[in-house]
Fold:
Amino acid sequence: MKVTTVSFRWIQALILVLSAAWIAFTTMVTKPSELGKNPAPRQGFPAPEFTLNSLAGDPIRVEDFRGQVVVLNFWASWCPPCKAEMPAFEALQQAYHGEHVVILAINTTYQDDLAAATKFVADNQLSFPILMDKDGKVTDRYQVLAMPSSFFIDRKGVIQQVIIGGPMSEALIQTQVRRLLQEAP
Amino acid sequence: MLPILHIGPLAIQTPGLILMLGLWFGLLLSEKIARIEQKVDPNSIYNLALVALIAGLVGARLFYAALSPDIFIKEPLNLLSLNTAMLDVSGGLITSGIASLVYAQKHKLSLWPTLDTFTPFFCVMAIAIGLAHFASGDAFGAPARLPWSIYLWGEYRHPTQLYETLLALVVAILVWPRQRNSMITGLRFLTFVILTASGRILLETFRGDSTLIFGSLRAAQVAAWGALAFGLSLIGTRLKQAQAMTIKEEST
Structure:
């Protein structure tokens, strides 16, 4: 039994030395700090770039808002949770107006009724930009699989949180935005 | 990758569904092993899991609310929101761990037999986490052009979620049946810990989303190495204790 305990000590030391050597060797060979990331619609990746026309017809480029916290929200007028969370976005717009926060609500126009969407925006007096995805390319690029879907993008243009489904409460939206505002620009 | 399962008008988040199934099946196995071994009261398995789950959810929500207390004080009903995005995972793990310890103390559950009984549950959950990562596309691999690479997030990558699932499966096969009749309590759980930690050290090498510390060291590898060292030293202690017990029995 004594021999077993002594052997175990040697085995233990060998395992620890070998595993530490593996960590050191693979860190040197694979260089994890040099792994770049292509734009992709998920947490930790640069947000895919796009340009869409607003409801008023002005072209809006998401990359123009670099340096500000951006909340992208994909919605449709036929989707009850999308409509339910819009007042929370409007409250955010009012609370953080002029504080480096931008809300871009992307209407999935290719699968929505434009008249119904326009009426919803007017009825609810939404003051943030409503972008119209008429051919569905941006919705496709962001791999939106369920409505609503929201992307919280930091000041460096990196997606920090993706929330699928809703409705999101004002508390959730404001907590996320506040967290991103606290980070260095 | 199948993050959302559409069933009629319902959009079910597949990773959550897989984890729920893992939770159910893992607890079923642990309860079964408790009945076979008779070291831990089988009823306490579900009770302990329930306490840990409820405490974890409450803690996760409270820790999240602590990030913006003014908002939650203004609208306290948000504390009851069903939105899982409003949960702080580390906070939940802390409260869940504390509640489990309190429950175990109160009901006089011995540490090692309880951990041994829960090991099948841990094994199943490790497999479920790998599959959930595969469904969501999380825990993705580093870019690589291999015959078995998968196209994910704009690049061909190591299918680390599948490596993770396979490793968890191998650990489950190695841990469970062989240690079933072990005389040394705690050995089954500790074997699970050291095999899982070793697997993580290997697996992390191929990950593309590692958190780095000290410039370029992968944090998960360092943490897993610590868990490996701790697990091995505890096995050493358990072996010594078993040796002392044997000598004592032989002398009497």
Remarks:
- The radius of gyration of chain B is 21 Å.
- The longest helix of chain B spans residues 219-251.
